[in-house]
Design goal:
Blueprint: H1 12-31, H2 40-47, H3 51-61, H4 80-103, H5 111-137, H6 147-151, H7 159-169, H8 171-188, H9 194-214, H10 220-233, H11 238-245, H12 264-292, E1 305-314, E2 317-318, E3 329-334, E4 338-342, E5 347-350, E6 352-355, E7 360-363, E8 368-376, E9 379-386, E10 389-397, H13 404-407
Antiparallel strand pairs: 1-2, 1-3, 1-10, 3-4, 4-5, 6-7, 7-8, 8-9, 9-10
């Protein structure tokens, strides 16, 4: 069976679509490098600096938006600035498509440009999926729920916090999703497995996109773009896939011949760059992730655990455990941070330092210093100043095993469903 050949003549809609996506994807990769290459984020911080002034100006002057566009490092990829930047890229792609169409009316096809655009797109998706897959396989992205999180009522969680708790609970689920993302990334690194990688990528990236949309995770733009890019990579095999999956017709093998330069040294340099890039991807995102290890394996801090407040003395008054009291502690969780649960079930987290020599429990942000005394192996006393009042707090440890989420475990056989 002969391989499918590249079309000698493209239709007008194909040319228009290609011109738009050629400009759009190049703009997106340049403006949203997402750390796929060494120093790419640092470089983008330099050449994207003018847009930090242009986008807010355009939002106010051209679009007449009432709220000012604030640009800051918030950990969100879905800020107003990000959406306006996406609008800018779409607008420039449409304008560029029209200008390109007006200037180039005689080109019959863009087979060679299409090939190289697919290379750029598949490497962008591949590296992104390897990065996120590596973070999940080593369980860096979703650590196990902290004691403070376990102590917090579900109704007080944000949708994103609920998703992080859901993902962080199961190590095996992290490994499964991580391996799926790694598989997509590795398949897309090579021409012969690009189609399979794009098909699997639609489902894997689509699942990520669904979580981001349904749990209000602010990575909606990036996850959507990954799905769009996977769909784009399948356009080359559109007729073959339609024949195979829907029309029950013969599907000729795809033409996987690479586009090479005429001079041999350029081809050797290209292969060398590919080998170095793949080596860097594997080293920087997989091997280094295993080197650093999962935070779940980190050593627990001294006094680790959840403590019930047995007595709470403020000044000279012993406060009774009334649920209407918004100052008395109910519980204290000591993990990588300290979380105080008040009598009304509201929870507040604090950064803290523990001085085991002087027995000082220091709340970093507010600089509260409480001296702790170990009365028994499971009982401690805190004494010092808390919110301008002297306090004496007796705490009794009950650990994290009392949480059904952490103690239930896995069961092959369940005579009854355990749904709480």
């Amino acid at each position: 069976m002969s391989s499918a050949t590249e079309p000698a003549t493209w239709t007008v809609p194909q040319k228009l679509a290609f011109r738009f996506f050629m400009i759009f994807f190049l703009l997106y990769v340049i403006m949203e490098p997402n750390g796929v290459l060494p120093l790419s984020d640092w470089l983008s911080g330099i050449y994207m600096e003018p847009f930090r002034y242009f986008i807010p100006w355009a939002a106010k002057t051209v679009l007449h938006l009432q709220n000012p566009v604030v640009i800051e490092q918030s950990g969100s990829g879905d800020t107003a600035y990000d959406y306006l930047l996406m609008l800018f890229m779409v607008t420039m792609s449409l304008v560029g498509m029209l200008l390109w169409t007006a200037a180039d009316r005689h080109t019959k096809n863009y087979n060679k440009l299409f090939y190289w655009l697919c290379v750029i797109v598949r490497y962008y998706v591949a590296i992104t999926m390897v990065v996120y897959g590596g973070l999940k396989v080593v369980k860096l992205q979703f650590p196990a729920p902290s004691l403070g999180r376990l102590m917090e009522p579900v109704g007080n969680m944000s949708p994103m916090g609920l998703a992080w708790t859901y993902m962080g609970y199961s190590t095996l689920f992290n490994h499964i999703t991580g391996c799926a993302e790694l598989t997509v990334g590795l398949l897309l690194l090579f021409r012969r497995t690009t189609t399979l990688g794009a098909i699997v990528g639609i489902f894997v990236c689509g699942n990520v996109m669904a979580v981001n949309y349904c749990f209000d995770v602010p990575v909606k733009l990036l996850s959507t773009m990954l799905v769009v890019m996977c769909v784009f990579l399948l356009f080359r095999d559109y007729h073959r896939l339609m024949n195979f999956f829907f029309k029950n017709r013969e599907a000729a093998p795809s033409n996987l011949s690479p586009h090479r330069f005429k001079t041999q040294w350029k081809n050797r340099v290209l292969i060398g760059i590919k080998v170095v890039l793949i080596g860097y991807i594997l080293y920087a995102n997989i091997f280094m992730a295993f080197y650093w290890g999962s935070p779940d394996d980190a050593k627990k801090p001294p006094l680790y655990g959840v403590y019930n407040v047995e007595t709470f003395i403020r000044g000279k008054d012993t406060l009774p455990p009334l649920t209407t009291d918004t100052t008395r502690w109910r519980k204290l969780a000591i993990d990588n941070d300290a979380n105080v649960q008040l009598m009304n079930d509201s929870t507040t987290g604090f950064l803290f330092m523990l001085d085991t020599v002087r027995h000082h429990f220091v709340i970093s942000r507010h600089k509260y210093i409480l001296r702790y005394t170990i009365l028994k192996p499971d009982t401690i006393m805190l004494q010092g100043t808390w919110k301008k009042d002297s306090v004496q707090i007796k705490l009794v440890k009950h650990g994290d095993d009392s949480f059904p989420l952490m103690s239930r475990g896995f069961h092959w056989i369940s005579e009854q469903g355990y749904n709480r």
